[in-house]
From TrEMBL:
UniProt name for this protein: N-acetyl-gamma-glutamyl-phosphate reductase
GO function term, MF aspect, one: NADP+ binding
Purpose of the protein: Catalyzes the NADPH-dependent reduction of N-acetyl-5-glutamyl phosphate to yield N-acetyl-L-glutamate 5-semialdehyde.
Gene: argC
Keyword Ligase carried by entry: yes
Protein's organism: Thermus tengchongensis
EC numbers: 1.2.1.38
Length: 348
């Protein structure tokens, strides 16, 4: 049994991690911390979870655990990760702190990077592309929901060398915005649909472009710190009045001659061995992946215009966050990749 702990366990990602890890047969959840709920029972933040434990201190979690999940706002993991690594811990970071080169991170996140030397060690935690790097990793940068959905929607085209750019529209449930913030109040999101951070300013854009650029330059599998080709992507996110779920609709700019048969063959071959990616006949929908670690993907050739479109749906709190982190944990520890991760969604 590997001892694991969660720092930042009162946010949505932390709560979902607790739910998944409590059912994991290969790990022992030895501690979870929250500055807001320190000393309080777990039910103070998560009444749906049955556990007699209490939120501990950051120091207690660091002392007891062998693997640390950092489920913290951007800017905090870069301060805690060095200490954890120095003490011999392995770290899975759910924030954006180690996903991008420090200079790129600073320009898009507006935060000075305090541990730039660790970026070169961090492995990018998208298992479908980086599985081979994760086994020996000490520090994993766990990607988020929009990036995971968009990257997996376009990865086969990029690896084929056909992708030149894309226009992506993303729709997210409110939990994707985190547990705090006036923009997510019920009165503002109920019966409302709104775009946000448009015009090429969303900070996940460079991460998507780098993921696809790696595939364009390296094929598959890719290396986190390997060469990167150029892919330009426009991204328009929307906030949807539902609790959880991500749906992306992407129009791909491609080279070559394509039709529906060729697209289906490319995507089914590319994801044939992937336990959590399903190529669907019908168009994906968020309810189909609710509470699962699965991504549903559908490529579509629009014969009337000759356009290539791809649709992808996932649960932003599972495959888009905590489930992906557990998937990375399994690969880091040499455990079966699917351990403790649901493939089936909940309906209704």
């Amino acid at each position: 049994m590997v001892r694991v702990g969660i720092i930042g366990a009162s946010g949505y990602g932390g709560g979902e991690l607790i739910r998944l890890l409590k059912a994991h047969p290969g790990v022992e959840l030895v501690g979870f911390s929250s500055r807001k709920h320190e000393g309080k029972p777990l039910s103070a933040a998560w009444p749906q979870l049955w556990d007699e434990g209490r939120f501990g201190t950051l120091e207690e979690v660091l002392e007891q655990a062998e693997v640390i999940f950092l489920a913290l706002p951007n800017g905090l993991a870069m301060e805690l990760a060095p200490k954890a690594l120095e003490e011999g811990k392995r770290v899975i970071d759910l924030s954006g702190d180690f996903r991008l080169p420090p200079e790129v991170y600073e320009s898009w996140y507006g935060i000075p990077h305090k541990s730039p030397e660790l970026y070169r060690e961090a492995v990018y935690g998208l298992p479908e592309l980086h599985r081979g790097e994760l086994g020996g990793a000490r520090l994993v940068a766990n990607p988020g929901c929009y990036v995971t959905a968009t990257t997996l929607a376009l990865a086969p085209l990029a690896a084929e060398g056909a992708l030149r750019g894309a226009f992506a529209v993303g729709l997210s449930g409110v939990s994707g915005a985190g547990r705090e913030g006036e923009g997510t109040f019920f009165a503002e999101v109920n019966e409302n649909l709104k775009p946000y951070k448009v015009g090429g300013v969303h900070r996940h854009i460079p991460e998507m472009e780098r993921n696809l650029g790696r595939l364009l330059a390296q094929g598959r599998p890719v290396r986190t710190h390997g060469p990167i080709g150029e892919v330009r992507l426009s991204f328009v996110p929307h906030l949807v009045p539902m609790t959880r779920g991500i749906l992306v609709t992407v129009e791909a700019v491609v080279e070559g001659n394509w039709d529906q048969k060729a697209l289906d063959e490319l995507y089914r071959d590319f994801y044939a061995q992937e336990p959590f990616v399903r190529i669907t006949d019908a168009l994906p929908e968020t309810k189909g992946t609710y509470a699962s670690n699965r991504v549903d993907v559908k490529p579509l050739y629009e014969a009337r215009t000759g356009r290539v479109m791809v649709f992808a749906a996932l649960d932003n709190l599972v495959k888009g966050m905590a489930g992906q982190a557990v998937q990375n944990l399994n690969l880091m520890l040499g455990l079966p990749e699917e351990t403790a991760l649901p493939k089936e969604g909940l309906w209704p």
